[in-house]
Amino acid sequence: MFLPTTIREVRERGWDALDVILFTGDAYVDHPSFGAAVIGRLLEAEGYRIAVVPQPNWQDDLRDFRKLGTPRLFFGVTAGAMDSLVNHYTANLRLRSNDAYTPGGKAGFRPDRAVEVYTRILKRLFPRVPVVIGGIEASLRRLTHYDYWSDALRPPILVTSGADLLIYGMGDGVVERVARAMHNGYNAKLLRNIPQVGFLADSSYVGRLDPARTIRLRSFEECTADPRALGDNFTVIETQSNLMEPTATLVEPAGDRFMVLTPPLSAAEAGDLDRSFDLPYERAPHPRYAGRGAIPAWEMIKHSVNIHRGCFGGCAFCTISAHQGKFIRSRSEASILREVERITRMPDFRGTLTDVGGPSANMYRMGGRDRERCRLCRRPSCLHPRICPNLDNDHRPLLALYEKIRAVKGVRRAFIGSGIRYDLFDDSPYLETVVRHHTSGRLKVAPEHTEEHVLRLMRKPPFAQFERLNDSFARICRREGLPYQLIPYFISSHPGCTERDMRALADKVLGRLHFDLEQVQDLTPTPMTLSSVMFYTGEDPYTRQRVFVARSQEEKRRQKSYFFRK
Fold first, then answer.
1. From its phi and psi, is residue 273 left (phi > 0), alpha (psi between -120 and 50) or beta?
2. DSSP structural state of residue 508
3. Segment (H or E) for 138
4. CA distances from 114 to 85, 138, 159, 228, 249 (A)
5. Which of 270, 332, 371, 446 allows an S-S link to 489, with CB 3.0 to 4.6 Å?
């Protein structure tokens, strides 16, 4: 049974009221890859009465916001699986014509800055009901950040949205605690003791915090006056986000209030990932979408399996570690195999798993050999500038998992559609196994650039490693008689990258290596990334060395044009 989306569905369950109503910018797909479904199912498992309002109309008489009435505990708001501005605009700030999270792929069913728009409407209609925001859009705007779409700094999203509480990062370990804290009414004291939440407070509250466990960041106003202050904040925020056992509360002044972030859950506290994936999802779009066209994002992932969360690559342009964390949380083999078996029973399954992966497909069960050394570590990446000697990058657990998946009745092929980190390869036959058994004909990897100084700013390995991978891939394909392709991803206009660097990239990749590039992109500086800070400030915040930035759309267009030279 799907979570209800209308008052009729609520009444069919025999409910006269709801505990939590979730608003999302995505269509409602009841599947563990869609955040609103996960949060709804987790709260449902705790006995709460939950409903979902997907893609509410914010431009009419607001009936979608009123139709389910007042929840007993709170409204939950998320923009969806993507940031609404990334969803709407290309890197050149042109409006996209489609939306993968909407039936028929149609655009226009969510507003820009969806979290802010939905929240302000709810606070206007229901001023006494708490609003809790979360998901990728809210999470990455939790503190002062550079906003590429307005080309300006913006304060924490609680300031601009008017929400009461922010859950940042992956909310599945936190939202149940929030619901319990609100069970007998809004209790600020209980809520402010929950890990991984943010709230606005006054000076008296901040003055009572333990100074030994509090880090005060530069204010929004200081960051606006001096771009270097934003860089100072970023180095602190990133370091604290990547600790194994974080303990510091972050405080950032904004106007006459203070944005307070409690420490994130530690790797040990984050809980059992299996529980979230084993909930009773329908694994399908809600029936309300029948006849309205396919939902492209659902079509892409419906026969895929996510095996872990987190990424320790620390790439400068990526938001994964800021949102999911640096430490890998892996599902058990049993949970993964249960999901594979559920997929084989889907009516439209024809024997092919389209992806067995994660943020980086080959980090399953990886981590530090000596956990005490990990507790002391402050590095943002376990792979850059060189692979950490404490990292256990043994691929054997993943190879054993692949073998068990291939043995599941009904599975004829299990492909790896997620990108693979080739700088993680060990001495195992991992690459050969992937090429022989798990490649659909095209294997995705992400060298991102060719020039060493650009790669260093990106926190990516030397291009020579990609060239060795290319040679190994070609050798395996020749030996096995496989007409497969290696598909490399590249980025233009990253801070530090000039037109001369793009010309050198084109000469090496299109010229010497003879690749026809398909997977290329112009950088979009998204909030809470090192790349966005460098883009805004023009310097590396860790070294304070100046870096070249292609700022204008014309400069960015010229850089991207080198990908398509003949």
1. alpha
2. I
3. helix 136-139
4. 9, 10, 15, 29, 27
5. 446
